[in-house]
C-alpha cells in the first residue's frame, strides 16, 4: 500500500490554525471520533451524500485520491457502517489523506492501524446497502457547516476546520 502524499499542513494543529485564520474557517462542533492511524490530516474536499448505502464510498475511494479528504454525509446514522477495513485499505492504496464520515464505520481496530485519517461518529458491525444511492461532489451541510467540494479541510484530535 502507498501512503498518501505528505502534506506539510497535515501536522498543523487545528487550534493553532484557527488562532491564525479565525473566521476564515468554519469549525464543526459535532464531536467526531478520531479512528484512523493518522491523527492529523488535511486536503482538498471531495463529497458524498448517502444514507446507509456505501457503494459510492467504495467506488470513490477506489479512485486516485491525490491527498484529498472524502467527506461523507451519512445523515448521522449509526445504523450501518459506511466504511470498513477493506474500503479503508483501498483509500490508503489510492493516496487519500483521510475520510470524514457523518455516520458509522466498522473494523475500527484494523482501520486504526492504517496510515489514513478517519473521523466518524462511531462504529457498527452491520453492513450497509450496496445499491449506489446517493450523490457525489455535492455541497454538504454538517452541523450547520457548509462543506463544498474543492474546499480545504483540516482534521486532528481537537476537531474539524473547513475553509469558508
From TrEMBL:
Homotrimer. Belongs to the class II aldolase/RraA-like family. It holds the Pfam family RraA-like. This is 4-hydroxy-4-methyl-2-oxoglutarate aldolase. Keywords: Lyase, Magnesium, Metal-binding, Methyltransferase, Transferase. Substrate binds at residues 84-87, 106. Its cofactor is a divalent metal cation; Mg(2+). GO terms for biological process: methylation; regulation of RNA metabolic process. Its EC number is 4.1.1.112, 4.1.3.17. Catalyzes the aldol cleavage of 4-hydroxy-4-methyl-2-oxoglutarate (HMG) into 2 molecules of pyruvate. Also contains a secondary oxaloacetate (OAA) decarboxylase activity due to the common pyruvate enolate transition state formed following C-C bond cleavage in the retro-aldol and decarboxylation reactions. It catalyses: oxaloacetate + H(+) = pyruvate + CO2; 4-hydroxy-4-methyl-2-oxoglutarate = 2 pyruvate.
